[in-house]
Structure formats: C-alpha cells, structure tokens
Design brief:
Blueprint (H helix, E strand, L loop, with lengths): L25 H16 L4 E3 L9 E4 L11 E11 L3 E8 L2 E11 L1 E7 L5 E7 H14 L10 H18 L5
C-alpha cells in the first residue's frame, strides 16, 4: 500500500465532480487500500478519491473510536437515497483543508446505496458520526467542500488563507 499526497485547498481538482467507477477490479481495490493507508496516516476518518487526485466515485471511512479495533469501510459509487428531516451539528474538519474546523448542520440520518470492494451492492441506514462522515465525503465526490455549508464570510476567509498559503508554497490556486 502507498500513502498518496493529499490535494489541498485551493486546488481546483477539489471542485471536480467525480466520475462513476465503471467496474470494481484490482485497480479500484488497490486505490481503496492506498486511500485507507493515506487516511490513517493523516490521520482522518474519511477520504474521497478526489482528495488524492483521482476524481472517481470512491470513498473510504473508519469511524472507530480511538482504542477500538479499526473498522475500515469502502464505498464505491455511493448515492444518498433519503435523508431525515431531523438535523444534527458536528464540528467538521477536512484533510484537504488542514487545521480548520467548523460546525456544520446536516441531516441526522441517511440511507445510502453503494458497492463494496467486491462489487456487491448494499443499502445502509446511517446516523450519528457515520451519517455526517458519509455526507461530507459524498459532497467531495460532487465537488462540494464542508466550507460550502458555513457562512459566506467565513468561507471566503478560509479560501483567502489557503490561497495565500498555496502562493507561498508555489502551488496552483483556484
């Protein structure tokens, strides 16, 4: 497994809408394994393929608490089928927006259809942290960042900060 470099805001790749995974094969499973390794190394609890520069509809999640056994999950072509009217608020962060956190309100529970790493279809009910993490990562697949769910003023401040930092690093900006 390989730890892949993370794409950091304001890289325009993060705004790309990811393409469907056409077939679940060894290449896709290898990418999922690399993404899990990258996510654990960061450390994080979720990672979308676009965050490692691969705009495909693939994400990995592990919401096991510290001290619990790892519980990695792979979601290929995930689709939210329904969302509850009830809302919940979590303080979210993002590996592509390092060291920035904000409270985001999202549906408290969702139903998601996806393929697993063997290509088998599943429909799951998720609530709590798993629901929030799935929505955050599925947003990535649609070119949406968690900062798009906060006030325009705060979002613009974050984008300015990361744009300035990218210029200092000599990387491309939006």
């Amino acid at each position: 497994m390989t730890i892949k470099p993370l794409i950091i805001l304001p890289d325009p790749v993060l705004r790309q809408v990811s393409a469907s995974v056409e077939s679940v094969n060894d290449e896709v499973r290898r990418l999922a394994d690399d993404m899990l390794e990258t996510m654990y190394d960061a450390p994080g609890i979720g990672l979308a393929a676009v965050q490692v520069g691969v705009p495909r509809r693939l994400l990995v999640i592990d919401v096991a608490k510290e001290g619990e056994e790892k519980a990695p999950r792979v979601f290929i072509n995930p689709e939210i089928l329904s969302a509850s009217d009830a809302r919940s608020v979590y303080e979210e962060g993002c590996l592509s927006i390092p060291d920035y956190y904000a409270e985001v309100e999202r549906p408290a529970a969702i139903t998601v259809r996806h393929l697993d790493r063997e290509g088998q279809e599943h429909v799951i009910e998720a609530d709590g942290l798993l629901a929030t993490c799935l929505q955050h990562e599925i947003d990535h697949l649609n070119g949406v960042l968690f900062i798009d769910h906060i006030s325009k003023l705060k979002r613009e401040m974050v984008i300015r900060k990361f744009t300035k930092a990218s210029k200092l690093r000599g990387t491309k900006a939006i």
